[in-house]
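Hi C.,

You asked whether I'd gotten around to modeling the 222-residue construct. I have! Everything is below, sequence then structure, no commentary in between.
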Amino acid sequence: MLQKTTIGFLKDLKKYNNREWFENNRSRYDAAKIDFENFVGTVLDKMRVTDPTIADLKPKDCTFRINRDVRFSKNKAPYKTNMAMYISKGGKKTNNAGYYLHCEPGAAFIAGGMWMPMAPDLKLVRQEIDYNWDEFKAIINAKKFKAHFKDLQKTPDTSLTRPPKGYDEHNAAIEYLKLKSFIASSAIDDTDLTSINLVKKVVAGFETMKPFILFLNRALEV
């Protein structure tokens, strides 16, 4: 579970997102950061038992800075209003598929997969899905996967309108070959964030998507 003080800090940060307020509340941020990193460490301890690819990761390898990069953004608010972790083979800066938790009051969720991979990796993933469609279909249609995530995200921003080059529109996997991102996600209620069951809920979601993550990462092993 996360402390109520951590969630309270994030709520206030969203309301007072400026440097003066942040510096006056830095001790609250420091406490929230420690709380979140301790939570990430607990999740890692649970996950590394069954996923040896993340065995060497530490919380700092999986968490992100609170500062926003505002150089190319119209939104000039200096701080993120969430805390997040990305558990992936090699750490958060790799191009590998991984497990994600977004902790933000009113907008929390767990997710996993690959977000907008570069063209060479995208080509490899599409090829893996095409060559092993029956296996991929079984993963995303598994009862537990459907119950947790229903399906992969399909939006105008993350999916092509036409088949990618080299694939026929009648390909059995075409709905997924059109994807530019491969993401499964599920919302988390605010009440869950401070519940003693949060670790269990997050780990259960990650464990459910593990075959999906391993499939995507296998595609990159060339």
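If it helps when you're writing up: The chain has nine helices and four strands.

Thanks,
B.
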